[in-house]
Amino acid sequence: MAKYEASSIGVRIAYEMKIKNLRVLGDSLLVVHQLNEEWETRDAKLIPYNDYIHTLTQTFDSMTFEHFPREINQVVDALATLSVMFNVAYSEEVQPIRMEKYKTPSYCMSLEREPDGKPWYHDIKHYIAYREYPTGASKNSKRTIKRLAMKFFLSGKVLYKRNYDMTLLRCVDALEAENILEENHEGVCGTHANGYMMARQVLRSGYFWLTMELDCIKHARRCHKCQIYADKVHAPASTLHVLTAP
């Protein structure tokens, strides 16, 4: 629905500017094919948008709808979603959105290198960046690295793991993983959750490493407060009652 909202607003602005030849680029295959009348519009909420845009189309000399890949249209996609999240009164002054991009992420300033200087994802990151395997790697190791690399995404110097719902999880090394576990378990907002719950919380926070679930379980077991104040799972001792057969 946000895609149709953005498309209708854009076409209306072009109409008010008295533009005669218009080329519309969209990252939604559904919207593009429906506006080109290649697919049928069946959703009751989208039919009014479709009819409105086709009504405005008749006022242009030429107008085309073309598909634009979503991976290179992320800013427009975010703004289209933002436009339908809240209502702004015409009497209110809307502050412009200012976006800045730093060359170096802020979290890199507080990290130290691991003992060997290479995190667990070094070979995967090197393969994605240069398509090269580690020196002396066997055929089985090369096959494993190639298979694992399909689930990761490299953005600049930061490696991300594609989750099952297509969200990107930032890969962290051993030192940062330990800091995340401490903050998540006994930090300011920590709830001293068990290992499995901690792993889910870390995923929702947007971080990933291969031994995440196992490390969460070990960290929860080592917690001193959890060992002292945890609920006792053993039933208290009670007198046994002898049962006799009839």
Helix-strand layout with pairing:
Elements: H1 2-16, E1 21-26, H2 29-35, H3 47-57, E2 62-67, H4 74-83, H5 122-130, H6 139-149, E3 152-155, E4 158-162, E5 168-171, H7 174-186, H8 195-205, E6 207-208, H9 212-222, H10 224-229
Parallel strand pairs: 1-2, 5-6
Antiparallel strand pairs: 3-4, 4-5
Instruction: Using the coordinates above, name the CATH class of the domain at 2-83.
Output: Alpha Beta
Number of helices: 10
Order of helices and strands: HEHHEHHHEEEHHEHH
- Give average pLDDT, whole number: 81
Structural class: alpha/beta
What composes the largest sheet?
4 strands, mixed
Number of strands: 6
Kindly report the CATH topology of the domain at 2-83: Nucleotidyltransferase, domain 5
The name of the CATH architecture of the domain at 2-83 is 2-Layer Sandwich
CATH superfamily of the domain at 2-83: Ribonuclease H-like superfamily/Ribonuclease H
The stretches of 5 or more residues where confidence is low (pLDDT under 50) are 107-112
Overall spatial form: extended
The end-to-end span amounts to 72 Å
Radius of gyration: 28 Å
Beta-strand portion reads: 5-15%
What does the model show?
The termini are far apart. About 15% of the residues are buried. Strand 4 (about 160) and strand 5 (about 170) form a beta hairpin. The chain has about 250 residues and is α/β, with parallel strands linked by helices. Helix 5 (about 120-130) crosses helix 6 (about 140-150) and helix 7 crosses helix 9 (about 210-220). Among the domains are: about 1-85, Nucleotidyltransferase, domain 5 (2-Layer Sandwich); about 170-230, no CATH class. The protein is built from 10 helices and 6 strands. It has helices at about 1-15, 30-35, 45-55, 75-85, 120-130, 140-150, 175-185, 195-205, 210-220, 225-230, and strands at about 20-25, 60-65, 150-155, 160, 170, 205-210. The longest helix is centred in the N-terminal third of the chain and has 15 residues, at about 1-15. The protein is extended, with a radius of gyration of 28 Å.
